[in-house]
Amino acid sequence: MHFDRLKRREFITLLGGAAAGWPLAVRAQQPAMPVVGFLSFRSEADAADSVAAFRKGLREMGYVEGSNLAVEYRWADARLDRLSTLADELVSRPVAVLAAVAGQQTPRAAQTATKTIPIVFGIGEDPVTAGLVPNLDRPPGNMTGATFLSAGLGAKRLGMLRQLVPDAEVIGLLANQDSPQGQEQLQDVPEAAKSLGQQLVILNGSNDQEIDAAFASLTERRVKALLIAADPSYDPRRKRLIVLSAQYAIPTMYHFRDFPLAGGLACYGASISDLYRQVGIYVGRILNGDKPADLPVMLPSKFEFVINLKTARALGLDIPPMILALADEVIE
């Protein structure tokens, strides 16, 4: 009797021990939550809408941050010298996929940090001209992504600015001469101005002091309208550029929608929300098993011409109805 009771007690103990181990075994069989790296040249405060679009793209592929996906964010705050360190941090994490956005310098830093982790870029330049990929259709290696070709639209913006301010004999181009994007537009825009017979003044603005000095020189140089070059270094300076444009009462054309939404006169460019959504989609597709080489670089399909009518009135501009009719959005 005592022996049977002892055996029964041992059996119950053994059974209880096995049951306690079941949840651990089940958990061990479950795949770990994938971690995605998000590296941006911009600041976190400046990119809230872009991050929301990125998350939307992820959701379309079945991934919800905090539920079945973790995202590690790194922000360079418009400092080129930080990109390499931040990229190395994400690679050593390690991450399953690395999204590298806001200017070609960001995917360059990612490319230097890893040759194996898939990289999805989101930039405004031509990635072939920038040397990131040799072709758009089947980019070899570990990198693909999306571009909104913003830097290549400078000539188009110049033409639209001329329509908004037809009496501007002299138009200024503010460009960061230290960046690849600025250098590209310093070639394209003057060529377009020459073909249009438009006087163009080049203004260098690679830092806050140069930007302030450029605006202060507008009157002396008889500049009546200003084109801001598409450059990731100008995105965190959006408020500064808009305030200076208002202070010097200069009609200014920008490169994406956030500027007129914040009080700038107008913009023309591809939808930056679409770009970040596409980056999120490609990250999700790679997590689902696709290889970067199987994903062609996506080109922009949606362009936005936005006019802030309140700002136009403050500048004394009378925007013709025909121009307003062409706008995708008019901010009253």
Task: Report what the structure shows.
With 332 residues, the protein is an alpha/beta fold. It has two domains: 35-148 and 271-301, Rossmann fold (3-Layer(aba) Sandwich); 153-269 and 304-331, 3-Layer(aba) Sandwich (Rossmann fold), CATH 3.40.50.2300. Helices cover 43% and strands 18% of the residues. The chain contains twelve helices and twelve strands. The protein has helices spanning 2-29, 48-60, 80-92, 105-113, 154-164, 180-196, 208-216, 238-247, 258-261, 272-287, 309-314, 321-326; strands spanning 35-40, 70-75, 97-101, 119-123, 143-147, 170-175, 199-204, 225-228, 252-254, 266-270, 303-308, 329-331. Helix 2 (48-60) links the parallel strand 1 and strand 2. Helix 2 packs across helix 10, helix 3 runs parallel beside helix 4 and helix 5 packs across helix 6 (180-196). The longest helix has 28 residues, at 2-29. The relative contact order is 0.14. The model is unreliable at 1-30 (pLDDT under 50).
Question: Could you provide a short overview of the structure?
Answer:
By secondary structure, the chain is α/β, with parallel strands linked by helices.
Topology:
Layout: H1 2-29, E1 35-40, H2 48-60, E2 70-75, H3 80-92, E3 97-101, H4 105-113, E4 119-123, E5 143-147, H5 154-164, E6 170-175, H6 180-196, E7 199-204, H7 208-216, E8 225-228, H8 238-247, E9 252-254, H9 258-261, E10 266-270, H10 272-287, E11 303-308, H11 309-314, H12 321-326, E12 329-331
Parallel strand pairs: 1-2, 1-3, 3-4, 4-5, 6-7, 6-8, 8-9, 9-10, 11-12
Antiparallel strand pairs: 10-11
Helix pairs in contact: 2-10, 3-4, 5-6
